[in-house]
Amino acid sequence: MNYPEWQHLTLLMDEENPHCNLYQLDEDCFFYIEPAFYTQLMGMKDRHPESFPLIIKEIEEVVKKHKKVIFTSNYEYPQTIKEGFIYREIEDICDPLLIFVEDKSRGSDYGD
């Protein structure tokens, strides 16, 4: 998958996780972007285009701080499992920036 937000970084191949991009930010900082996380990220770009550069910057700051990060849509059921890596969801990135994910998937207000 081609993620233009990180085209300036080194893209590594992980044969154990061929469906998730693995990037090297610097000598000792690595991160995976799971496809479902990227879909959520693009949703944030659509809803908050003015804040999108801040979100990308925050992702990279989280990687610099923790060194090994897997960005997943659900940390309870990640697609990528790697020892020594931590998991972060879209809310973990956006909430500290006061950019909130709106969950509008709720049931109907109408009874049967």
Structural account:
Helix content is 29%, strand content 19%. The chain has 3 helices and 5 strands; from the N terminus they run E-E-E-H-H-E-E-H. Strands 1-2-3-4-5 form a 5-stranded mixed sheet. The longest helix has 15 residues. It starts with 9 loop residues before the first strand and ends in an 18-residue tail after the last helix. The model has no long low-confidence stretch (mean pLDDT 92).
Unreliable runs, pLDDT <50, ≥5 residues? none
**Distance between the ends:** 44 Å
Number of E-state strands: 5
Helix content: 25-40%
Q: What string, H for helix and E for strand, traces the elements in order?
A: EEEHHEEH
